[in-house]
Amino acid sequence: MTLETALRALSEAETRVHDLEAERTRLALRVKDLEQQLVARTSPRDTRPDPAVLSFFHDPDAAVPVGSETPLGAGRSARAREQRETPPRPRGRKPLDPALPRELIRLPDPPEAARVDVFTGASLVPGFTETLEVLARRPAVYFVKRYERRVWVSPSKTAPIATPWPASALPRSGIDASVVAHIAAAHFSEHLPYYRLEQQLARTGVSLPRSTQVSLMAQLDARVAPVVDCLKRHVLASGYVHLDATPIDVCDPARPGETRSATVWAYRARSPDPEQDGLVWFDYRATKSPVEPSAVLRDAQYRGVVQTDGAAGLDALGPPDQITHLGCWAHARRYVVEAAATDARAAPYLAGIDRLFRIDARARVIRRALARDDPRHARLATWRERFSLPVLRALFTRATTEIVTLPPKTPLATALGYLLGQRAALTRCVITPNSSLDNNPVENAIRPLKLGARNWLFIGHPDAGPRLANLFTLVENCRQTGVEAEAYLIDLVTALAGGAAHIIADWLPRAWKRRRADGITA
Prior knowledge:
48% of the residues lie in helices and 8% in strands. By secondary structure, it is α/β, with parallel strands linked by helices.
């Protein structure tokens, strides 16, 4: 055997050993994940962190109280014992919601001739009352509100005086705020096209053509504009924005019967301030050019973090000294998952990325469990530096070495090309304090818009694009806050028409929800 042959065999053996070690690591992580899933299914829900995670702090003797006298780190046996002592849930049909209104219907007694004992002939006497509750529904009720007011005039023919019409009524349209809110919620929250709404209303005897519905939505858009502007300011003032774009077809007036692609940009705030965290703002633009969000951020004099999915041009938003651009590890993982379906060499990369997410998830659990004045809470700031950065460096080192040996345009080469092409932005995801590893929050906000687009297929006119973005902004913030959109829009339209919304921030969905919880309706 020549020296060259021996070196080649040695290199192949080392590569094989390296691959086997990576496969062993991946299988070990998979076994651990399955064990955790099994414990989660057989144990009551417990948000306390695993004591093995706290061992990273090298402080195993300290116990962290989490709202009870049970020490942090009570073992799995204690949770299993607690589950055994918990009585089983009752089986059978789930009781109807006690908050639903009840209507008592007393059934007539059987005829007197039937209330006789068939064996003795004696008359039967009342024994007990039996009840049956069933869920029922009445069709929506539409009615006409007829307002009357007396107009006071002067013999000298001065201006007449009369009581103003109610704020909930739209005099020019002859429509109440309740109907406007219902159409907006059905179209933008439940994704019903206008022609289906027209058909539903026709079944109840109401004629409301789709052209009238569009006109009502235009009036609603004009009325809620101050609230949408307030949401925009809050999102851009958060200092951390998740940004993503979704294409949407719009009819082209220059080519009747044809459509062209427009874009709705979604901005979602991430902030330690609960008043700003999770707020969403949609912006309609005729193109997908990154110049559009750059102009928005520049006009707002935005300074902070912008996290995107790594699309071309989005890594250069704004001046580098004002904006920190972050990438998305979830997108990098998608390419690796596609490669792993056909190439086993992708397994170590998938295991490494999953480990990054797992480390962050454990840090979030511990952060929720520890008090802010706990010294271990401060040490969480170095968590990624100690545990995530080594995994990150290993991923990029392996990818740099392996990509040169792969045929181009293969799934693994594509995945590694994306990983290395986004190296700077992905690294900033890990080294930026309190950052997210992925851009999924804004993609979750976009999902209802995509569901609606599958029903409408396209926007009828470019002028309707900004209106769609504005009303979707309100409806999506309602969804994120857990607010019923129709009830919110009824109050909002009435308040804006009556001049009660002089402090616009008090009419954002979260503020409105708090007032409703406190029993305040205006």
